[in-house]
Amino acid sequence: MCGIIGYVGQRPALPILIEGLRRLEYRGYDSAGVALMERGKLQISKSAGRISVLEQMLDMQAKPKAGIGHTRWATHGAPTDVNAHPHTDASGRIAVVHNGQIENDRALRTYLERQGVEFRSDTDTEALAHLISRFYQGNLEQAVRQALHEISGAYAIAVVCSDEPDVIVAARNGGPLLIGVGKGEHLVASDPAAILSHTTQVVYMSDGEMARITPDHVHMTTLDAIPVTREIEEIEWGLEQIELDGYDHFMLKEIHEQPEALQDCLRGRIEARSGSIHLGGLVDCTRELTRARRFILTGCGTAWHAALVGEYLFEELIRTPTETEYASEFRYRNPVIDDGTVVIAVSQSGETADTLAALVEAKQRGALTLGVVNVVGSSIARETDSGVYLHVGPEIGVASTKAFTAQVAVLAMMACYLGRRKHLSPAAASQFITALEQIPKQIAEILERAGDAKVVAERYAGFENWLYLGRGYNYPVALEGALKLKEISYIHAEGLPAAEMKHGPIALIHEGMPVVVIATSGSQYDRITNNIAQVRARGGSIIAIATEGDRQIAKMAEHVLYVPDTPEPLQPLLTVIPLQLIAYHAAVLRGCNVDKPRNLAKSVTVE
Ligand code: M6R
């Protein structure tokens, strides 16, 4: 998705902007550009394609000490040079970078064209640049404010004007934006990663707020000019967390980070001996949560898969009816919500537009809302009544890995926390927590045998169709394994509850077709081995994910990838690891760009 970076201070701005843009690359983009303030005029450079293309156009020795930059992910208009941001007014005096979508863009364009404005691009952002220019009378902040009153839609923007060479005006309404605080300098960005090498001190902007940013001062107000005071906060991440640290790809790094990440996620929250769970974010609403008549878990993509595991966990441990809904469906389908309904939004980024909209819808209908979110201070984290952070550090790879396991771990803790307040005995909770405590170590054991997954990928990476089957808690894992393979290797893969196979998809199976079956020990074992037999009878090649020590399965499968034993509700935390590794290696073998898959963005902040 689009990214914003801005700098105003004492140092040459260009290297800072380019570094920031590079750190935003992981979010996905198809063009990039910068605007530099040079001696009372703006110098705009922008181009379709990678940041390296933009760099070739730039004089990296340029002296200007203020500027804005942008990575664009095309929505209005093709990814071309002319549609890349920044966009300027007709005089070239005002430049705007913008994340989000202006909804009344058509009407604005028609109005401006009638006033004689000639548009150069197909973007909605250009209308904003022209509009600000029409209101400009020597005060950029005031002109932006007036223009924003004419705009509907979601935006995060940074605006500069050549008449005010050390001022950036930023505004937010529905897209993340934060201000980095340095000594005699300030930065503005849509993602902390963009500024982390310069400062860890930040001010998070909220929707409906604007800021006038100069080297020494930040003046924050609402859109209606009411002054706003915000605390400076510390970004928790270290720079090493957003660098490759010797790995070939962020996805591989993040897969291998999972033991430590899960340890961070569980730290201080579980106590096996007493069978107790401490989740600070739930303390104030525990009473309401234990009285809830229904939970709705919502999210998109991988987060939706984690939510589905959560549904199984909640119903088993809390014994309260729970449903999982695609946020994109929930937001539009007139859902039945009463005051006994709790809606839980699951999201790594905390910025996914559909999940955010589902949440707003749920709130408007009176639900208590919780977030299971990774990015601190993100829109979903702010919008929810309460919630539990994942605490796994930044996830850079587009394919979500450590966020999935942490989302499941948090939902498991929530289920156990609330279960204890209802039907779960202290002994059962203690057993559950003891098993949960083992998970980081058990993931590390699986990762020691990561080479086994590579062998599978080498054998089957040439097949264009794969099936993933699971039952019970491992059904969402089958969906997740298929999604991982699809999104980074471009192999078509389908995940299914194994029993559904006989209702249609079994027709797909042909000689040698790779079928990944999660066949770990537990209540579903006999049924899933039966499904394996059905696949084998039709010539499919079985790649089984099984529990260590299961020798029987080796007779039924071409390949077995073993995971340590754990109770069924926690198995997704282990069974997903080999599937992440298979997808990763298949993508590498097929020469795909693992961290930046085609057509995909890290966080989907548009509909
Ligand atoms: O940031 P979120 O968790 O809300 O993102 C939701 C999905 O867009 C995300 O999980 C997506 O499916 C990933 N690319 C999957 O790997």
Explain what you see:
With 607 residues, the protein is an alpha/beta fold. It folds into 3 domains: 233 residues, Glutamine Phosphoribosylpyrophosphate, subunit 1, domain 1, CATH 3.60.20; 204 residues, Rossmann fold (3-Layer(aba) Sandwich); 148 residues, Rossmann fold, CATH 3.40.50.10490. The protein is 34% helix and 23% strand. The strands form 5 sheets. The protein has an 8-stranded antiparallel sheet with strand order 3-2-4-1-10-9-11-14. The protein has a 6-stranded antiparallel sheet with strand order 5-6-7-8-12-13. A 5-stranded parallel sheet has the order 18-17-19-20-21, sandwiched between helices. Helix 9 links the parallel strand 17 and strand 18. The structure holds 5-amino-5-deoxy-1-O-phosphono-D-mannitol (M6R).
Q: What's the topology here?
A:
Blueprint: E1 3-8, H1 13-24, E2 31-38, E3 41-48, H2 51-56, E4 66-72, E5 87-88, E6 94-102, H3 105-114, H4 125-135, H5 140-148, E7 153-161, E8 168-173, E9 178-181, E10 186-189, E11 201-204, E12 209-213, E13 218-222, E14 233-234, H6 250-256, H7 258-266, E15 270-271, E16 276-277, H8 286-291, E17 294-299, H9 301-317, E18 322-326, H10 327-330, E19 341-347, H11 353-364, E20 368-373, H12 379-383, E21 386-389, H13 402-420, H14 426-448, H15 450-460, E22 465-470, H16 475-489, E23 492-497, E24 514-518, H17 525-537, E25 541-547, E26 559-563, H18 572-589
Parallel strand pairs: 17-18, 17-19, 19-20, 20-21, 22-23, 22-24, 24-25, 25-26
Antiparallel strand pairs: 1-4, 1-10, 2-3, 2-4, 5-6, 6-7, 7-8, 8-12, 9-10, 9-11, 11-14, 12-13, 15-16
